[in-house]
Amino acid sequence: MSGERETVLELRDLEVSFRLKGGGVFKAVKGVSFSIYKGETFGLVGESGSGKTSIGRAIVRINDASSGSILYKGREISGRIPKELDREVVRKIQMIFQDPMASLNERAKVDYIVSEGLYNIGVKRSEGERRAMVAKALLEVGLLPEFASRFPHEFSGGQRQRIGIARALIMEPELVVADEPISALDVSIRAQVLNLLSAIQKAKGLTYLFIAHDLSVVRFITDRIAVINKGEIVELAETEELFRNPLHPYTRALISAIPQPDPLVERKKVVMVYDPKCHDCSTDKPAWTDVGGGHFVLANEKEADAYRARIASGP
Amino acid sequence: MANGPAILEAKGLVIKFNLRGRTLTAIRGAGLELYEGETLAIVGESGSGKSVLTKSLIGMLDRNGWVDSGSAMFEGRDLARIKEERDWLGVRGKKISMVFQDPMTALNPLLTIGAQIREVFELHHGLSGKKADHAVVEMLERVGIDNPEERRRQYPHEFSGGMRQRVVIAIAVACKPRILICDEPTTALDVTIQAQILGLIKALQRDLAFTTVYITHDLGVVANVADRVAVMYAGRIVETGLAEEVFYDSRHPYTWALLSSLPQLGVKGRPLYSISGTPPNLFNEVRGDAFAPRNPKALKVDFVAEPPEFEVSPTHRASTWLLDPRAPRIEPPPAILAMRAKLGGAKLGGAKLGAVGGAL
Fold first, then answer.
1. Between chains, do B192 and A220 touch, taking CB under 8 Å as contact?
2. What ipTM was predicted for this assembly?
3. What element of type H or E holds A67?
4. Model pLDDT for residues A193-224, shown as the tens digit of each residue
């Protein structure tokens, strides 16, 4: 099914490195490749330090890609790019940040916060038009247009996250990179924001890259999931397939660790521990392998055969 | 688990704070029992008062806060009446200790972790020299830190988040407390590390025989650790019962809403059940059931009168008018019915599922 779908974003062997104090180089992202199709929600899941945020930041070009490429609708957007393209990409790829307490300018009014992007891309607009756009964006995220004259501290965490979403929407993006957009919110507010993100996606046909560590949330909201560990993607599959047949031992460990709100299940639970030494890579190097139906896993040939057998025999 | 006398019993606690000249009532009459050896989880969203309630039990309320009324009996003393810092020293850290949420800020960055654990042994056990060092090494081993002899000379920044939380736990249990309060102990950690830390606390509880109180908003964690659960909302405990009772047979609309809004129980492609609005402003007086304004199926009486606590079973109580015999029958949301169905007609703590117990 993936063959005919329009690709919005493609990563090819992306590497992101950081220079360390004292001269070393730390590779946060090591040769990551995947494509995101139009209209889907693509989940990128990993633990802290796995490089998931670095990938998101590379896509919105906060971090430079040290090698490899990022293609937006087939055009390279990493490194030096023409001004026209730059302007388009700035608009079309927007980001929602994790902590709404830290991501809004405390000294600016909501009006400015939401329309800052518009000022930056320098399209001439009358003041009236700009205001109308702010009002529309606020309404879309379930806030009142009157809120435009208030400051961020007057809002609760959930409302602030809505402001963060309005700020992304006003640019009329095509791809939204949402980096842990609900993990800083309260349980009762999380559902509100998740529903809002889904509703906006349906209404506008947006594509999401949803970065998170919480697999239970990711399962609920995404169509496909890539699991990343220490800068490498170890498994990628459609969401339900991934939960039905988790293959890579790291994915299995991660899924086994999700706490379920069900005491009878939780008390019997056995958490698997991922031991990187379980891969025997001495002669047989691991490669990115399709084990069937768009289910990819990082495995050597022997492992891949075992994985295929496991899928065939059912979960 | 809920057998025998309670080792700690709080009744009608009211805790207030002075903020910019106004008075905020953070805890509006909360009661709580704790039984020897059990694990109680207090669940609620931020601002529900779960941290304030437990901080009042170890004398760690901020300076602008005070216990206005109520009592908290522990070993024959009323903790709510302790005023002097001197008197707290015999309780805090010694009998009741606490593991804080963020292991990044709970430790002193300028001291080696060995020195921070050692302090406990020196202050509370009067150990010194080699003996104290030995106790530190033993404690580090116990919480699963390899090479304790070298690691104790290192500083917090040389430890990962999970390892730091192990150190914080070591400090908390070094005194062999009777009660260990864990305030969101794994919120700042990854899920795989979270599982390890929860396992560690359980193992320590078995070995050292203390009673554990978890404060958390994560119902997955609650399901994993808790024998009993207390659900807090706007400064009151609205429902309390055995974990099975609260998860599979919850009665308070707030508990229903909290469980239903979990993505784990949601149906993909359909909107999640979500709680509209925000919790009440506790600067103002709350009339009736504090959750009523956010509860689409609230009864008229919910806006007028505070619901009393109804008994569902000897171990299960909830403060909602729905349990009054005069109340109309209101169906819980689908996710809650699904949770009930998981147990079928099994008996829970003496109350038959599905039947309106208690008040009849």
1. no
2. 0.82
3. strand A67-72
4. 999 999 999 999 999 999 998 888 999 999 99
Question: B222 with B322, same domain?
Answer: no
pLDDT at residue A2, as a whole number? 47
**A chain contacts of residue B343, beta-carbon cutoff 8 Å:** 264
CA distance B181 to B42: 10
pLDDT at position B348, please? 52
Range 212-231 of A in CB contact (< 8 A) with B: 213-217, 219-221
Q: Answer whether B175's CB lies under 8 Å from B125's CB.
A: yes
Average pLDDT (A245-264) is 92
Nearest of A274, A277, A297 to residue A287 by alpha carbon: A297
- Which CATH superfamily hosts domain A2-245? P-loop containing nucleotide triphosphate hydrolases (3.40.50.300)
Q: Which residues of A touch B259 (CB under 8 A)?
A: 261
Mean pLDDT throughout A148-175? 94
Those residues with Cβ within 8 angstroms of residue A62's Cβ, 6 or more apart along the chain or in another chain: none
Q: Which domain holds residue B163?
A: 6-229
Residues of A in contact with B218 (CB under 8 A): 187, 259
Task: Report chain B (360 residues): mean pLDDT per 10 consecutive residues.
Answer: 78 94 94 95 91 93 94 95 90 92 88 94 89 95 94 93 94 94 89 91 95 94 96 96 96 94 87 86 91 92 94 95 92 89 60 38
Q: What is the mean pLDDT of chain A?
A: 91
Measured CB to CB, residues of chain B less than 8 Å from chain A are 45-46, 161, 190-196, 199, 217-224, 226, 243-244, 247, 257-259, 261-266, 268, 271-276, 278, 339, 342-343
Long-range contacts from B185-189, C-beta under 8 angstroms, 24+ separation:
B185/B99, B185/B100, B185/B101, B185/B214, B186/B218, B186/B221, B187/B101, B187/B102, B187/B216, B187/B217, B187/B218, B188/B101, B188/B102, B188/B103, B188/B104, B188/B161, B189/B161, B189/B162, B189/B165
CATH code of the domain in which B197 resides: 3.40.50.300
Do the chains contact at A261 and B223, CB–CB below 8 Å?
Answer: yes
| B340 shares a domain with B225 | no
pLDDT of residue B346: 52
For chain A, which residues make up each domain, given as ranges? 2-245, 246-315
The residues, ordered by sequence, that sit 6+ positions from A3 with a Cβ below 8 Å of its Cβ are none
pLDDT number for residue B236: 95
From the candidates B264, B342, B348, which should be mutated to test the interface with A, based on the most A CB atoms within 10 A? B264
